[in-house]
User: Which sequence fits this backbone?
């Protein structure tokens, strides 16, 4: 069987994504990692991703080993490639959170086991799987549903749009000039999204949407731009007035960590339309489904 990696949502076909979502909901997790290891390497901070992925590995019978940035020092103590080759000697899967997405591609190029993106500057595909589970849990399916993302066209937005488009949802993204998707991204999104609106108008994006989504204006690694970004994103806060423009029954999602009073108002994040805690829990279920698929159904993960 072919070795598969998961660096971005569109590494999987829509049918394969459906298999992953089905595995995520399986009542008895397959013990595909029994007696095997999973390496979880972090160049950036994490609360949800580390804990949900570690627990997903445990539920599949495996043993997670989390490696902090200072322990292996990618491309400083040794090359990304040699770290990946080393970890593949012991583990059935290598999961990594990195700054440059290219580091994941370099790992995948040499690894003999699947490589999973735990967030890069470009994408956050495991988050997007949890987002899909949350939408399905709320509405029972995806048909005829629209997701509107308001904020920075960042890693989370990119993976969310690809995931939502892959299951047939309509997608709208509102970002200010300078923070919108470029032509290459737009082409990649249009390959998965039959209905895609890219705008600078939050109200236009949210109008009639079933799911409203936002993320931080200042991603990890962008702290030096914080003041400028806060100025540039003025008017993009998701609050109750904006949510009122969405469809009746609409829900609010946020990958977290959240910054109340910046990208999202506390009244909205902590209000009745918020589904952020089921969404956070779904990080574990979706990680379990993805890992089960990668090392089980897809046949990878044999060091
Ligand atoms: N949503 C998410 O990835 O959270 P962490 O950065 O805490 O892992
Ligand atoms: N866009 C954010 C997501 C954090 C989960 C970041 O990259 O920091």
Assistant:
């Amino acid at each position: 069987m072919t070795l598969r990696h998961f660096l971005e949502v569109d590494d999987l076909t829509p049918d394969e994504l459906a298999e992953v979502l089905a595995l995520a909901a399986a009542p008895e997790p397959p013990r595909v990692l029994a007696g095997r290891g999973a390496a979880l390497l972090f160049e950036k901070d994490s609360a949800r991703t580390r804990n949900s992925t570690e627990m997903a590995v445990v539920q599949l019978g495996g043993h997670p080993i989390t490696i902090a940035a200072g322990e292996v020092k990618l491309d400083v103590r040794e090359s990304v490639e040699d770290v990946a080759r080393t970890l593949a000697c012991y583990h059935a899967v290598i999961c990594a959170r990195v700054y440059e997405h290219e580091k994941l591609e370099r790992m995948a190029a040499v690894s003999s086991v699947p490589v999973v993106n735990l967030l890069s500057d470009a994408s956050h595909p495991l988050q997007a799987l949890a987002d899909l589970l949350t939408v399905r849990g709320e509405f029972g399916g995806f048909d005829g549903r629209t997701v509107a993302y308001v904020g920075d066209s960042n890693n989370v937005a990119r993976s969310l749009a690809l995931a939502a488009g892959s299951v047939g949802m309509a997608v709208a993204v509102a970002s200010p000039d300078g923070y919108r998707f470029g032509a290459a991204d737009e082409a990649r999104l249009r390959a998965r999204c039959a209905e895609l609106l890219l705008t600078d108008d939050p109200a236009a994006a949210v109008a009639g949407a079933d799911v409203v989504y936002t993320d931080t204006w200042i991603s990890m690694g962008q702290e030096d731009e914080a003041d400028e970004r806060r100025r540039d994103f003025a008017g993009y806060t998701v609050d109750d007035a904006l949510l009122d423009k969405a469809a009746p029954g609409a829900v609010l999602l946020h990958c977290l960590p959240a910054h109340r009073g910046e990208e999202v108002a506390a009244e909205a994040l902590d209000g009745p339309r918020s589904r952020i805690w089921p969404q956070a829990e779904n990080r574990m279920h979706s990680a379990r489904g993805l890992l089960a698929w990668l090392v089980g159904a897809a046949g990878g993960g044999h060091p």
Remarks:
- Residues 276-297 form the longest helix (22 residues).
